[in-house]
Amino acid sequence: MTADLSPLDTRLTERALDVAIRLFARDGTRDVRMSDIAHEADVDPVDLRRAFPTKLDLIHAIIVRSTRQLLERQMTVSDEEKAPVERLSLFIRTHIEFSSEHRTEEELRRSVLPTLRAINPSRHREISDLLRGYREHVRGLIAAGRDAGVLAPSRPAVAAASVLETLDGILNWYDPSGGLSVQELGNVYADMIIHHLLGAPPE
């Protein structure tokens, strides 16, 4: 369990999390030791172990922070004054941009959630509750589009799950060095999801 931290310790912990993400992206989680993270972050290994007794504790903190950041970014860009299709398009593009910027954290979440479900249900619930709130936000966007007559899903909750599954699948194949920019990727997926998956009429 993560220890209570003073403001100074919190700043050091944030730095340690950032360093851990960079090392995990470069070397993989298995080959990175806690001592490596402490050294690169210039924090006392004992202090790091006090905050995160195991590597899984640290990874859990990374996942929670990243998931909250995703929710916060979506809430920041969401504007109820915009038309439903425009709001959904912005949601899709923001999700793709965030996932590209935080690819390591997203991959950690996908790989670690099953482990947490098995060995630490309370931590699994913590992350699942955040993701449930995110899915509910998508459902609300889709329902607003259906109520406005511009989207055609029969069940917004099921459609929301399909939208997120489609977006999460991007990590399986997208290579930013492959010639398709994140902006272009957002254009493709916004069109596919809004017009083909959710049935919006062509513009």
From TrEMBL:
<dbReference type="InterPro" id="IPR050109">
    <property type="entry name" value="HTH-type_TetR-like_transc_reg"/>
</dbReference>
<dbReference type="Pfam" id="PF17932">
    <property type="entry name" value="TetR_C_24"/>
</dbReference>
<dbReference type="InterPro" id="IPR001647">
    <property type="entry name" value="HTH_TetR"/>
</dbReference>
<keyword id="KW-0238">DNA-binding</keyword>
<dbReference type="InterPro" id="IPR041490">
    <property type="entry name" value="KstR2_TetR_C"/>
</dbReference>
<dbReference type="InterPro" id="IPR009057">
    <property type="entry name" value="Homeodomain-like_sf"/>
</dbReference>
<dbReference type="GO" id="GO:0003700">
    <property type="term" value="F:DNA-binding transcription factor activity"/>
</dbReference>
<dbReference type="InterPro" id="IPR036271">
    <property type="entry name" value="Tet_transcr_reg_TetR-rel_C_sf"/>
</dbReference>
<dbReference type="GO" id="GO:0000976">
    <property type="term" value="F:transcription cis-regulatory region binding"/>
</dbReference>
<protein>
    <submittedName>
        <fullName>AcrR family transcriptional regulator</fullName>
    </submittedName>
</protein>
<feature type="DNA-binding region" description="H-T-H motif">
    <location>
        <begin position="33"/>
        <end position="52"/>
    </location>
</feature>
<dbReference type="Pfam" id="PF00440">
    <property type="entry name" value="TetR_N"/>
</dbReference>
<feature type="domain" description="HTH tetR-type">
    <location>
        <begin position="10"/>
        <end position="70"/>
    </location>
</feature>
